[in-house]
Structure formats: C-alpha cells, structure tokens
Amino acid sequence: MTLFRPNRLQQLIRDPGAPIGAIAAHLDALDHDTRMAELADTTRQDQRLLWTKADAGDPIDYEHFVPKDAKPLEPIVHHGRNTLPLPGPQRFFRKPMTRPEDGTERAFGYNDAPSRGLVGPGYFVLEKSEPAWTDRGAWFVNYFTHPDGPVPADWPTVKPNSEGLQRFVYGGTRDFMRKVSDHVSIGAAYKGDKPLDHYFTLCREG
Hints:
The structure is a single chain. The protein has an 8-stranded antiparallel beta barrel with strand order 1-2-3-4-5-6-7-8. It is 23% helix and 25% strand. Helix 1 packs antiparallel against helix 2 (20-28). It has helices at 8-14, 20-28, 32-40, 44-54, 62-65, 116-119, 166-169; strands at 76-82, 92-98, 107-109, 124-128, 139-142, 173-179, 184-191, 194-204. It has one domain: Porin (Beta Barrel). By secondary structure, the protein is α+β, with helices and mostly antiparallel strands.
C-alpha cells in the first residue's frame, strides 16, 4: 500500500516553525509548472494555514496582479485552485486580469472556470482595500461591481453579477488577497462581511 506523502510546499505550510518567507523562497525557486503542481495538491486545511501564515508577510501590491510592464488591456493570467467540495477538475480555473485604459490603479478581470458556460463569466474589479479591511488583505477582488470600460476583445461579454445564475456564485462576494511569493497569492472569500472559510491560490504566469 502506497501512502500519500505531502510535497515540499505542504510540508512547509504544515510546519509551525516555517514562516511565510521560507514558503516564498521555496516557491520562487520552482519553475511555473512545478509551482502549479505543488499548489494543486493543497488541501483546504493547507490553504487555511497558508492564509494565516501569509498575514505575517509583505502586503500584496498592485504590480503582483498586473506587472509594471503590462500594457492596458494586456491580459495577465492567474491560474487558480480552490478547495470547494467539487469534482477535481472543477476546482481549477483562471483569473485573467488587465489594466484598464483609463490608467486608474485597479484591474478588470473575470473567472474562466469550467462552469462559465452555465454560470457566467463572474466579472470583477480588483481594488485596493479600504482601511477597515486591510487586515484581511491589501487588495480584494470585488464582485459587487464589474468593468466600466473596455476589456480585451476576446473576453466574454461583460455582465453584472446580479444577472442569472452568477448571483448565486459571485453576487455579494469579495475575495481578499494576501501575498505568498513573487508569483503566488492566496485569497479568502467573504459574503458581505462574513468570512466563508473558503480559500484559493492564484499563480501568475511569467
């Protein structure tokens, strides 16, 4: 019988003596595919622990989501993995984000998930947290609103999350984000002001 052995990332997350800096150094040393593979194995408890450890790290900043050299309407892809009680492939998604044309410090994005054809694109605006929310994360994914300017031409039609089945998944939700490493962040979902104890990791390409 072969027993499941946690990968190195999981070992660091589960080690009470391993700070977020050690986790960041490990992830930064990996290539994109290996980074994605290790994140794919994380359990809900792993992500909960990682969320807590990330609170002791550096606050996440705008350039983590859309790097300085990214042009307006240039998509920057973040690969996501959540731990919702769904079949394995349904836990993986992408969050493409882009700088808006108006030059404001925010990002437009949507959820490219297996359920998009049924539920909808789940558009959002990435915004800086208000002072009362900074303990949750310096930036958050705001599903209360949607892009109010142009988005890349090949993105789906922009719809508010009050329409259709989207309202049951994204409506009234904010995802607060914390930095894990140069490419990786972790989010925690809130419905209104209520934490849902649901988490996800994002891994930026490039």
